[in-house]
Amino acid sequence: MTPTALDLSAMRRALVLADAAAAEGDVPVGAVVVDASGTIRGEGRNLREATHDPTAHAEVVALRRAAEALGTWHLAECTLVVTLEPCIMCAGAVLQARVPRVVFGAWDAKAGAAGSMYDVLRDRRLPHRVEVVGGVAEGEASTRLQVTPPAARAAAHPPQSTPAAPHPPQHAHRHAAAHPPQHAHRHAAAPAGADARAGVSAGGAGRPRCRTGRRGRCRAGPAAGNTRGSRRDRAAGRPSRRPGPGCR
Ligand SMILES: [Zn+2]
User: Fold this and answer.
1) Ligand 1 centroid to 230 CA: how many Å?
2) I need a labelling partner for 92 at 20 to 30 A (CA). Which of 19, 63, 104, 208 fits?
3) How many A from CA of 113 to the centre of ligand 1?
């Protein structure tokens, strides 16, 4: 894909924003959201150090401001122009905003999610895909990134007085339970007054009921009153695949 004149103009503004980020001690990344006419609707720079916000990447800041300016989260007529290849979080934000096109400067071999490490923006398994134009003004964008501000460098590599635990709390958290909130929600007790169309079946008052409708494949387990697991399931200590009392 070839960048347009509007892309190049927007990239110039993004590079200025990257410089502003560096001046405040952040990693120099800038981003703008432009509409079909090339008008800038939102712009942002990396504000992680300035705001102590781990999600304050330039792309997220620019998308939020564009959505606010346009009065909608649905940025289907816009292009995101950013000086660095979006990370996984920012690529996810692009998909959520339904942005159809992303133009970026430097490739990020360590964490890029637009073709380097991952290709979230063009993943065919996802319902929304994005046109990607990478390597625009790459030299200028890369040069800025080669000089990481001291504050950002210190935050990225804090001094360690004690050896790191092999499995830090985040790791333990991620693997503590598979999707506990969603699972609990999907198998929550049926609200009073709900009818069968909402996936509620007859049962004892106050009993948690399976609302998945996945008869025969329910994994609700004892929490949803499903204690009719097979002998093999009980021996392995895993939830039953059989429909429990709350299942339809
Ligand atoms: Zn990011």
Assistant:
1) 46
2) 19
3) 9
Give the phi and the psi of residue 141 in degrees, each rounded to 5.
-65, -40
Q: How do residues 8-59 score in pLDDT, each as one tens digit?
A: 999 999 999 999 999 999 999 999 999 999 999 999 999 999 999 999 999 9
d(CA 227, CA 229): 6
* pTM exceeds 0.70, yes or no: no
159 CA to centre of ligand 1 in angstroms: 24
Q: Give yes or no: 59 in active site.
A: yes
Contact status, residue 148 vs residue 181, Cβ threshold 8 Å: no
Amino acid letter, residue 185: H
- State the DSSP H helix or E strand holding residue 88, giving kind and residue range, or none if neither: helix 88-96
Q: Which of 24, 43, 49, 59 is catalytic?
A: 59
pLDDT in tens, 126-135: 999 999 999 9
